[in-house]
Design a protein that fits this description.
alpha/beta, Immunoglobulin-like, Rossmann fold, 665 residues, 8-stranded mixed β-sheet, metal-binding (chains A, B, C), GH (chains A, B, C), homotrimer, globular
Chain lengths: 665, 665, 665
């Protein structure tokens, strides 16, 4: 579309007074060119069953159109009206903690027929009303949809039916899941126990996968409703979010992003991240790489990110610019703030928008205005960036569920994402940009290096394809516990790391916790933090592989910790514990990291260099300083689009500064 | 009444054997002159429905009267009999955790009609039985009453009806509370959702306020029953308690003390506090100042305080005396221990009374006997102390609810009380005694200084009255987040600190967390702990005010942290973060603290000087040593009532020692 | 039986493929001579109600018998089939957290008639099927049985009936339990409130005791079913486990081991313990001493202990041997691993067996094979060890419940066991082996020293018997809070430590927390860690006793902390706080510890020496090195059975090494 969108979520409904004209004037001043409206406003649209009001929708659409600001319509279903919850008590989702009470958003049962019937009515009614409005550039279905830990009766019945289809008879299921254990056998489908209280991780992970499948189906169903009215030039999207640790952290456990994105014409994501002294750009990069990945490499929208946000996020001067351009550096074509104005009542009063509660221009708004101007001015150079990598990292919801079902002692929360981010962050700090993938297959030959962290559960075929990738000349860095169980989370009965033993040339049958152990370099000299061993410790015995490091431990010192194996024309490094980022960097360098196309700079964090090629074929490199000190840049030569000056040799980026250097590729 | 009461709670019901004569002999030996009986003994009074037994009541009343010991009758309703709970299962309170099971006290639904009907019967029956007994000096209704987090069906219906009366229609409520947000609109009263699960703090705070109103009504209802039989010389009181942190800490969130005390002829309070090495007298002073405040300045009863209490409270030699006189120093006219004997079974077995489980005289009892003797001997000098202050601190249940609904990240528990106590304690340590008030109005002109911590939610009129107080010559020290929202907890849409911007001459629209920031003195030199900034950090811009301190921070260093503004004939200091006690002391000094009448000594903690005028017009100063080291006293001249010796110049208080110095005013 | 059993739990049911022949071959190679089967396999035995399958049972029995491996049959009741839970929803246990959902084991209501009826049918059916098989050497009833915090309707009704029988009328109960307090009186049995929500510890502890009684009855009922078919040479046992802290820690709160073991012909126990750097042998010794104690001193089975276990337990080379022989050193005649193979699905996937998931020989299995060979070779010397001690430690489930109901502030979890283990571990570290007893009576005269930690609740008669034991010449080391309450957890109204004041010659009525206090030696010089005072601090006044130590504290320094009293021909030391292990060792030495027969070595931990006499009358001493460094052994002379060499003088044990020295007694 050769355009950069700079936007905000806008809620005319929430305004304490009529602000529309003033707001639009301030938006125009800041070069805001898109607003998202209507998501989460069901009770305003339909205050009583069957009674519809389009007052806010109509006036915003008209006013925005008049001002040249594009509009995204969100379907309003992710927060339900009080009347709906009262009339159909079954709509409130039942989770392992019991049925939820009305109040929060995102606590409905998305497979409940009453909910779906009413959702369909309000969606169809809204779409019919707005579909011809010229302001609308596209639709967002629902918002940050998840399954909300739904274990209600409808979900349960659907799951059991799905298992019947999957296994045919209960015997096959008993075998796959090992249900003989602790008398958990099921010999009649009607005896199927509550999935949420099972102690069988095979059953629990199958249920978790099925819950994600319901999210995929729900979003596809909404997208299909939109598709009935959508013009070809309009998009349909969903605003995907990530594992939340007070900010966007890792792979989303409750949605299969790759599957759910299929029904969308473009991916959108929520990216919230630490700021101030804690701003690193890692979440911006990770979220963007995931967003590209879910649609197989295209551009994406940052549908929500923070303007001021929480008190701990209010950006330092310069950081809002740094953040905005960091999004573009990963391939975003929209940066949209949640939200325009700070809300005066309720849950997100302290999740501040671009404007504070007083609606006046403030330092953050004024900085946004410079971004808007730059977006408009530089869109021809910056829009539709093509990001191409020869490094990928393999993630898997199934591996996550299984890994986390059997977390090492002393590990808290979503340990899988801890591991994934350990590998991801090391590459980020090395300025090696990556694709995030959920499969290794024929098309993976385009990668020189694939990182495979914590691939705990995987079907045989995927492991064989990984072997084939290496055999054909690929390089792989494979993390501990990979290959351990099959797709039913049944531990393999062969030697570990299972089928991957072949490409890795290593085996083990025992593992311990580090408890004071470290690494001792062998073929690879190691020092400092690179010698740390965390979380897990497989007692590896090479079978053909070279030992890069042993454990440094009085009793386990003869076991290998890191091995390297030539397999076919490729190489696989296997790591039996959670390595420090410094060791990951060392291993990636050993696997040819310096020569990768993905490596955008020989420098490293806090100087971050990311980018790609623009439609004109120019190389665009975003030079981003994630620190409060000036940083010298070397090896980046070209014209800085922001200043218009040529740069080259050894030049300086100011604190929290950004430069966008174009050059011929 | 020109009398000091020294008392105990007495439970003949709980005695493992008949001890009455022995107990009374020991009480007389200790000059115990009042006992409280009957509260919490419903099941003994009415072991089966409609079957009444006054055995214990009668014999205790008669025996005490014969011994010249006065009796307070407590209505027995704060713990219900098992038969009542079984017969009317709805009486057990429903809280957000569900309906409570029988066992503990204070878990009944105080708006349940069945409970109220039975409570009325037992109260009327008891009162009719005892009303003419000459031993009785007054009545206590219920005990430590609160709403017990009641969100049961009756409470809920009453709340909705009250909101109907308050708002008239749902639209007004939707606007006031911002219910459009997240589709929370209510367009039909029957759709009103469960208040306990709302994410709308406006609704939640309105519900909390209503729950407190039910406590007020319940206590007034019991007081009215008492008033039907009460003689004019008898009092009716309620034993109010405080926010509990294992001891009496701060403003009680579940009762509006000021409103509830109106139905009482005198206020009583529970004061439990750390002891041994941790005894500071702060809770004694705070609880006493609150107790005076709730009845607009009069004397009060300490209806419960610890004798031995928990193992961690067993007083050091001397501390029981220090505590007793500390109560008098704040205006108490009764010090009554909970309780006489230590209880041999159940929950409070380790909440020991004056006697241990063996009923023998012990060191604590023997020290009490010296207190009783002193109380009797010195009552003419010490009773009915008039405590007058020219400093006040403004507290508000509504501000508390609202502040705590939006606690700064990293803050735990009742943060409002953390802030209030930070201000209160600094004054206490400076020997500046205060009134605790819940309004600023015309009568506030008697204060030279008002401290206003964390007044997060307040109606416009109160803020205007604060402005007027300053304009007319008052001095105010106003803490962060004051003025931020209106009485519906809707954030004001004007510049912050809202209406208080006028008297403070300062504005802000952004705030962050300190995260390493400190304060840097400007017009006011600052050093040491006074430079600490905690909890919150408003980025202040003066609009007329002088900057007393800036933030010491690489990015926010140009924003003010503490400002001072002349407004009319007065001065307002505004502090944008949670200040250290040392800064509060510095600011109070700057506002003329040295010259305040409330400042009773130029010395400070651990030497505490508090007091007032006695009915004879003498100045009575309690000199209290809250340390295990002797403390020199200066500037206190007069006669020490305890020793009969004159003191003056520079004299010594022994460890944990007390002197009561009378002088002409 | 002159035999040592070396075994594994074996689950043919859980095998992913037919492994029986291979497994038996590997077992024989390792000299495994017993397997336990069938426990927890109800759903395989009876996949649908009334439909029985003995496939796995039959083939394992036959194959084991053919291989000369003995079999223990477990009744399968501790995990129920899904069909049973679905058909009788009441079978799922109701705990204070509500009714449990199907999934885990050990969540049935063991007093539910439906459960009992179906349990009886499956037990009888299984027994009838297998009873004549020659492989079977005995039966285990259920497994690790407990009451599962059952407070369901049946349990409650049974409890009330039992209280009716105990007290006759409610008045006696009201008095014993002090129910007048907080209106908790019960004047009609039908008003009996839910025991699980009571705040009356007398009631709560009576309920806890009753719950244990139900376990005793349940196990006796199963044993009676077994006894109907059991041959005289077959045993019936139950696998008892201990308070669990991630490993077997202390006295089991939910079973009265002494009472429940009466229905068994031999005691079996579960012993899991820290390993690797954290292996001390303490849990092995404690669990073994308890196991001997429950049957009054005989040999016992270690029915379950870890082979590889968790990742943090995988044994260092040598540790599996050290562990196995440590069990024998306490009198075990069976060491059986849970379990043979590691399980591929479900909850205990990471609780690894002797084999890893790949079924291949691994270092742990190979070490086990050496143990099996030694067991076989040395059984004539090592089986049926007679362990005789002149030191005992008194434990009590009733004291535990009561002590923990009134835990000192700051104490978490099962504080009673913390105290018991403090005393136990000090003796263990001194190589003083002990009997664990639950009564002091005429037969206690065989002990020279009895340790009595935390005997908080006890009937008068027991305390009188303790006095009599001392009077007759015994020595006692009595810990704080002993004697404090009666068997109804009513605090005694006499001077403390109650009836024990007589033998201890000391009294107190006040107690505090240490909060910085230490001990100051008086008649006994103290230094270093022996001066520590923890948890509790009774302010002791000697009445005839000598003061061994005072408190070191500015205010409480005149009170005694440790006293010693001659009483009759014996001596009692009383300690008013939780002493450090070093003080316990000092006090035990003072009480003649060096001369005790139980003292097996003048050396101490990590060199552990334990043992007894074998049937041939030889003295067998296990010398166990619980450290990663070699340890010199002195004072142990004889022939090392493992090497066949004579040892004597000063000789070395290797890291984690073991020697078994036989000599004439």
């Amino acid at each position: 579309m050769s355009k950069l969108y700079y936007g905000v979520a806008y809620y005319d409904e929430y305004m304490p007074a009529d602000r529309l004209a003033q707001d639009i004037a301030m938006m125009r001043e800041a070069n805001i060119n898109v607003v998202r409206i209507a998501e989460s406003t069901w009770s305003t649209l339909e205050p009583r069953e069957g009674e519809y009001h389009f007052f806010h929708i109509d006036r915003v659409l008209d006013a925005m159109h008049a001002a040249g600001i594009a509009v995204i319509i969100g379907t309003p279903t992710y927060a339900i009206p009080a009347w709906l919850a009262r009339k159909y008590p079954g709509i409130m989702v039942t989770t392992p903690e019991g049925q939820q009470k009305y109040g929060r958003r995102q606590i409905m049962d998305i497979v409940n027929p009453d909910f779906l019937r009413h959702a369909e009515i309000i969606i169809r009614t809204l779409l019919a009303h707005v579909k011809d409005h010229p302001a609308i550039i596209g639709y967002q279905v629902d918002n940050e949809t998840k399954h909300y830990d739904n274990c209600g009766p409808v979900m349960r019945e659907k799951f059991i039916r799905h298992m019947q289809e999957t296994f045919g008879d209960t015997d096959a299921m008993n075998r796959a899941w090992g249900l003989d254990y602790w008398s958990n056998r099921i010999d009649d489908w009607q005896d199927f126990p509550p999935p949420e209280s099972t102690i069988n991780a095979s059953l629990a992970c199958a249920f978790s996968r099925f819950q994600r499948r319901c999210v995929t189906e729900y979003l596809a169903w909404q997208a299909a409703l939109v598709n009935e009215v959508r013009r070809p030039d309009q998009f349909v999207t969903q605003n995907f979010d990530f594992e939340w640790r007070g900010y966007s952290y890792g792979v989303q456990p409750r949605v299969d992003h790759f599957a759910a994105a299929r029904a969308m014409t473009i991916a959108s994501v929520d990216i919230y991240h630490p700021s101030q002294r804690h701003l690193t750009g890692k979440e911006i990069a990770f979220g963007g790489d995931m967003a590209r990945g879910m649609k197989g490499g295209g551009n994406y929208f940052v549908m929500e990110t923070q303007a001021q946000g929480f008190a701990q996020w209010t950006p330092f001067p310069g950081q809002l610019r740094l953040q905005a351009f960091s999004h573009l550096a990963s391939g975003a074509v929209m940066v949209s703030y949640w939200h325009w104005h700070s809300i005066h009542n309720s849950f997100e009063t302290y999740w501040k928008g671009l404007l504070s509660h007083d609606f006046a221009a403030n330092p953050t708004y004024r900085e946004a205005a410079t971004i808007g101007a730059d977006f408009r001015r530089l869109a021809p150079h910056l829009a539709d960036l093509r990001v191409t990598n020869d490094v990928a990292i393999l993630v898997s919801n199934e591996a996550m569920d299984a890994f986390n079902a059997f977390k090492p002692q002393g590990t808290e929360g979503n340990a899988y994402n801890d591991v994934v981010r350990r590998f991801y962050d090391a590459l980020y700090e090395e300025n090696i940009s990556v694709d995030i993938i959920n499969d290794v297959n024929d098309s993976s030959a385009r990668y020189k290096l694939i990182l495979i962290p914590a691939l705990y559960a995987a079907e045989d075929a995927l492991l064989h394809r990984i072997n084939a990738y290496v055999e054909a000349g690929g390089k792989a860095l494979i993390g501990f516990r990979s290959g351990f169980s099959d797709e039913h989370v049944k531990v393999r009965t062969c030697v570990q790391p299972g089928i991957l033993s072949r490409c890795c040339g290593v085996r083990y049958s025992q593992f311990v916790l580090p408890d004071g152990a470290a690494l001792r370099g062998a073929a690879l000299p190691l020092a400092g933090s690179a010698t740390q061993a965390e979380m897990w410790m497989e007692l590896l015995t090479p079978e053909g592989a070279d030992v890069l490091a042993y454990y440094d431990h009085p009793e386990w010192g003869s076991y290998a910790a890191v091995t390297e194996n030539r397999y076919g024309r490729g190489t696989a490094i296997y790591v039996g514990c959670l390595p420090h980022g410094d060791l990951i960097k060392t291993l990636v360098r050993r696997l040819g990291g310096e020569a990768l196309c993905s490596r955008q700079s020989a420098q490293g964090f806090p100087l971050v260099v990311r980018g790609g090629l623009n439609p004109a074929g120019e190389r665009v490199r975003y030079c981003l300083n994630f620190s409060g000190e000036p940083q010298a840049v070397t090896g980046v030569t070209g014209r800085d689009l922001l200043t218009g000056h040529d740069v080259g040799g050894n030049w300086d980026l100011p604190p929290w500064g950004v430069a966008i250097v174009v050059s011929q590729p």
